[in-house]
Amino acid sequence: MSNNPTHKPEWAELQKHSQNLMSHSIADLFESDPDRVDQFSFDLDGLFVDFSKQHMTRDALDTLINLSRRCSIEEKRDEMFAGGIVNTTENRAVLHTALRRAKTDEVFVGEHNVIPEIHTTFKHIQKFSEKIRLGNYKGETGKPIKHIVSLGVGGSELGPRLVCNALDTEKQDKDALKIHFVSNIDPVDISRVFKNCPPEETVFVVTSKSFTTQETLTNALAAKEWVQGYLPKESSWHAHFVAVSANVRAAQGFGIAEDQIFPMWEWVNGRFSLWSAVGLPVILAHGFEVFQELLRGAHTMDEHFQNARLEKNIPVLLALVGIWNNNFLSAQAHAVLPYAQKLQDLPRYLQQLEMESNGKSIDLDGLKITDYKTCPVIFGEAGTIGQHSFYQLLHQGTGMVSCDFIGVVEGRQTDQNHHKLLLSNMLAQGQALMQGQEADESYCDFAGSKPSTTILIDMLDAYHLGMLLALYEHKTFIQGIIWNINSFDQFGVELGKEMSRKLENNDLTDADASTQALFSRVNQ
Length: 524
Prior knowledge:
By secondary structure, the chain is α/β, with parallel strands linked by helices. It has helices spanning 9-21, 26-32, 36-39, 58-70, 73-81, 115-133, 158-166, 187-196, 214-230, 248-254, 280-286, 288-307, 314-328, 346-358, 391-396, 416-435, 462-482, 494-504, 513-522; strands at 41-44, 47-50, 108-109, 112-113, 147-151, 178-182, 202-207, 241-245, 261-263, 331-339, 377-380, 400-408, 452-457. It starts with 8 loop residues before the first helix and ends with a helix. The mean pLDDT is 95.
């Protein structure tokens, strides 16, 4: 049978389900099924997911599960965990999950067990980070390090920034390390760091899997020049730079000492790399034990994904709900709405995770996808901020947008009134999107029947954050399987880079008339 999902019998059945639902609102589904909340809610060790506000019947969900089996998601899941060549276009295994495994486990790439080298790297990172955190690591002038500047872009920056900010606490020592992130090639980004960080007290973490990323290396060269300019002439800059890269030779060529280079591996994709040495800023900010809790939470979700029946498998169900909304209810976009200010970076993180992974139009058979949609546009904002910007469109816009509401049950004891108000807003928005409202004035009408999922975590600690991020990783992988695409390459980011290099060298031979005119104006 064809790998095109629309050629599978379940696809036509799902189209019938969606047509039959047009005359029934989500509120109608609640009225006809008093057990709906119990049937569509799932709990896993402090992470609770409620799908009951989705515009979906149990029969439709069962058909989606059958579709997923028809697409062999269980076999392909097992292949990924076992180190099979899942990234077929680049002939690579995909083993970010191995980074979360115990050191007594075995995971093979070919005939090589990768677990020992993972834990050797972690031990190296732990030793290095503790030396800095205890003040025993000195810069070239003998001063302890007080500032860490992470230089990276995309997966090298979004994950560590999200986790550092999400786990930040007012209880941290005022003398704790200050963590800064620089990702933009715009010089304003790194200049702000230069203004706030004494060079003799600063270490730069240069993170680039290939160690050829233009933005990261440009900023690293600027940082190197800045450090050299402030240090005494007889001093070296080397103590102020470390690298995280799969290209150790290139990092050494930049001038970074071998014992200050922390390896990545080709079988860890950039946007899934938080769990590797890419997480070094998290470890420096919060300690190695906290990072281990992050890994432990992700591993809990890994085990659930591997072992739970599809009917109760939370990553599978989250992915299938997304397929339903995108491909059968024509959702034009998907909003991620964390009602926790510390999760304000989550929408940006998931934008890269999902859109770079599944924003594809060529399937695994090399064919152009023409008869179904792949990844929707992902966007979002922390609640309640988003309520005063784009929620108008969610409620009364002409297109349909599906939503994930994410809340943290336990707030700070000193802020209980604020926290109750925050979560009341979140629950009310989900209710309003579903129920809608009839009004005498048409402009006050709310159509309702707008689908949403609500995810609650008991507390915002490293363990539950790890669970949450791994949940979305697996969702992304499953959707890629059903859409018959490779979620682990990203060739779509390359063409603009190639053209940029030509323009930098004043090569306009392939440029169109508009680009030539704009280039001329920019360079006047």
